[in-house]
């Protein structure tokens, strides 16, 4: 019958809900407007009424003064009000700071195995159903190591699409006079569709986001090579005719573009789903994507490197994503001390394979790489391609910005969107995970008896400390990610809140307080002053949303009756870690030993340095904890959905 959905000739859109049909109509109208005006962009933002976690925390104070809560304004104060939180939510879902240029024109995310057409096709075929793992067909064959992805093969991207939407969460699509670009926002990694309810969980890590593989399938993965284990370009400099003029007036060889690309793809593809390598330290060491349930959870970043400045370092973490990770061209001036490379060699390496002719560097073209970049740069007054306010310390790091840049949206004060996102993230609570009161009470008793509260104390179940890597016993390389910045580190400073952007010439900065114990903790977090580097004591809010565990995501146990240990099963984004079993592996030494052994047997996990080792604090039979008590402890940990005071207030009510 013509109206029967089982009929192969039945149009897919006839089964769509009205909301989706309305969205299609809006897109058609928007397309006509874009054709008329030449520009259009869109990023989805879910209705607050449709969230799985609409509850909110109250702010700590009326103002934030460079990381200190205050009741009245002072120099450097950010007012925390409803308008700031609203802007933070909007920025969380829609603000790219311009990274669509790097991701599309330089890295070529849509010019490799994944194409705009195939992404659009996959979204259309959802017919409004929504998904936690968008599958996209391969458009062009791409080889990664010994694996070739062939045309028509389905790639599990881990991209989340809300029910009734035509766009993935965390992706902003731009149409600009015939050119389509895609940029990323914070929601890409820090929001997720709950498969059970179909609702969006704001602040939850996207546990199956296959970002490493998507980068490996891009046209120019080399643009991110410094986040992989490529300690030197020398083995790739095999063509004596492929040279570039350095800033010192000499000529140096560039790496063979195809050979380096092949190596970069292998490194990026090793990242397990739900992880990301945010450190340009020439070492492959991705970390598990953290949640954004951040209230009272300072310092931020797995090593605790974001520990000072507005919102106790949370704004520094937000800034790091866009000032460092979403535009690697911004690091050119820092390349001599970060990578031992002349800036022109560094840029030439990144731009040799750029899919956009405007950004592609040709060694025979008569222009230096920086000249090529400057000619196409949408932000010529700042380093890199994104929208930045430049501190006097740039390109050197200071303890509130890893490269002296502050990602800023045009038309807003310097860093306003970063601070607004901090206020919004601190308001987020995890979805409630109820359990029997007697089970939770017994679990809390085990938590205290086993000594967990010694570190996981305070409002967010953390003592807000950085622990030396050897003491915690986990894989150490990520803890030393910022060690190379020590020789050029500058005293921490920022432009005052409200400073207009672009910054007027001669505008002074404010010093950010850093002394005493805070200085010692930052030195440990950055692996400076002879320290081995460290990892912060994470907060425990939202553990039900954030399996697998530890900084590398290595404490993983798969779902199902077999409960297969190790990261191996999770390398398929269709499989998610079981939170309860993974938490049990965190505290049970026998199960952990099986997890660690399984990780050692996975070549991909070994490449990515995912071990699951460390944090040898046990609540098992050998520690005098019975299986029922251990089960109660796990249920207690999974129930932690808000800061302690909020939970206690709710219990009293």
TrEMBL record:
User: Residues in domain Cytochrome c?
Assistant: 165-270, 438-591
What is the protein's name according to its record? Cytochrome c domain-containing protein
Q: Record's InterPro entries?
A: Cyt_c-like_dom (IPR009056), Cyt_c-like_dom_sf (IPR036909), Cytochrome_c_Peroxidase/MauG (IPR051395)
Q: PANTHER family given for it?
A: BLL6722 PROTEIN, CYTOCHROME C PEROXIDASE-RELATED
Q: What's a single GO MF annotation on this record?
A: heme binding
Q: Where is this region: Disordered?
A: 270-290
Give the superkingdom in one word.
Bacteria
The record lists the organism as Methylobacterium oxalidis
Mark out the compositionally biased spans (Polar residues). 276-290
**Membrane-crossing residues?**
20-38
Q: Which UniProt keywords apply?
A: Heme, Iron, Membrane, Metal-binding, Oxidoreductase, Signal, Transmembrane, Transmembrane helix
């Amino acid at each position: 019958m013509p109206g029967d959905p089982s009929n192969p000739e039945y149009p897919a859109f006839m089964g769509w809900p009205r909301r989706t049909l309305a969205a299609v109509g809006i897109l058609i109208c928007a397309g006509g407007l874009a054709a008329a005006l030449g520009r259009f962009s869109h990023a989805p933002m879910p209705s607050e009424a449709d969230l799985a976690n609409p509850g909110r925390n109250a702010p700590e104070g009326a103002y934030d003064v460079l990381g200190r809560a205050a009741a009245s304004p002072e120099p450097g104060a950010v007012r925390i009000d409803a308008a700031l939180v609203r802007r933070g939510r909007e920025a969380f879902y829609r603000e790219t700071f311009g990274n669509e240029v790097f991701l599309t024109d330089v890295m070529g995310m849509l010019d490799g195995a994944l194409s705009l057409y195939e992404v659009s096709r996959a979204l259309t075929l959802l017919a409004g159903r929504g998904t936690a793992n968008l599958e996209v067909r391969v458009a062009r064959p791409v080889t990664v190591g010994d694996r070739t992805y062939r045309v028509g093969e389905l790639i599990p991207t881990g991209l989340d699409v809300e029910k009734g939407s035509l766009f993935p969460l965390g992706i902003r699509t731009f149409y600009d006079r015939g050119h389509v670009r895609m940029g990323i926002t914070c929601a890409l990694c820090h929001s997720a569709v709950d498969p059970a309810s179909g609702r969006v969980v704001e602040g939850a890590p996207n546990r199956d986001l296959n970002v490493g593989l998507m980068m490996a399938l891009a046209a120019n993965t080399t643009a991110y090579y410094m986040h992989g284990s490529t300690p030197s370009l020398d083995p790739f400099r095999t063509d004596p005719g492929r040279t570039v003029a350095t800033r010192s007036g000499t000529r140096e060889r560039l790496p063979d573009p195809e050979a380096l690309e092949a190596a970069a793809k292998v490194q990026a593809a090793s990242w397990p789903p739900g992880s990301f390598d945010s450190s340009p330290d020439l070492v492959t060491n991705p970390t598990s994507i953290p949640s954004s349930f951040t209230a009272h959870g300072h310092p931020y970043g797995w090593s605790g490197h974001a520990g000072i400045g507005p919102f106790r370092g949370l704004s520094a973490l937000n800034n790091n994503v866009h000032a460092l990770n979403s535009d690697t061209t911004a690091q050119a001036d820092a390349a001599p001390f970060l990578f031992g490379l002349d800036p022109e060699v560094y840029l030439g390496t990144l731009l040799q394979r750029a899919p956009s002719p405007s950004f592609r560097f040709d060694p025979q073209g008569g222009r230096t790489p920086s000249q090529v970049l400057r000619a196409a740069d949408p932000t010529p007054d700042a380093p890199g391609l994104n929208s930045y306010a430049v501190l006097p310390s740039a390109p050197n790091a200071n303890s509130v910005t890893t490269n002296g840049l502050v990602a800023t949206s045009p038309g807003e004060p310097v860093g306003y969107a970063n601070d607004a996102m901090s206020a919004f993230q601190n308001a987020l609570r995890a979805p409630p995970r109820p359990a029997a009161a007697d089970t939770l009470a017994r679990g809390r008793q085990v938590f205290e008896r086993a000594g967990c509260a010694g570190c996981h104390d305070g409002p967010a179940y953390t003592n807000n400390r950085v622990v030396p890597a050897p003491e915690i016993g986990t894989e150490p390389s990520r803890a030393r990610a910022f060690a190379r910045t020590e020789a050029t580190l500058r005293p921490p400073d920022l432009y005052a809140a409200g400073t207009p952007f672009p910054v007027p010439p001669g505008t002074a900065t404010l010093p950010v307080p850093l002394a005493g114990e805070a200085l010692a903790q930052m030195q440990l977090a950055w692996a400076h002053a002879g320290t081995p580097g460290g990892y912060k004591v994470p907060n425990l809010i939202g553990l039900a949303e954030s399996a697998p565990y530890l900084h590398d995501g290595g404490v993983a146990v798969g779902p199902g009756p077999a409960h297969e240990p190790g990261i191996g099963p999770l390398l398929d984004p269709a499989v998610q870690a079981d939170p309860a079993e993974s938490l049990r592996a965190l505290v049970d030494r026998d199960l952990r030993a099986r997890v660690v052994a399984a990780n050692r047997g996975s070549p991909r996990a070994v490449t990515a340095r995912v071990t699951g080792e460390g944090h040898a604090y046990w609540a098992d039979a050998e520690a005098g904890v019975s299986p029922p008590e251990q089960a109660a402890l796990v249920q207690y940990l999974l129930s932690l959905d808000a800061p302690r005071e909020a939970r206690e207030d709710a219990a009293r009510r």
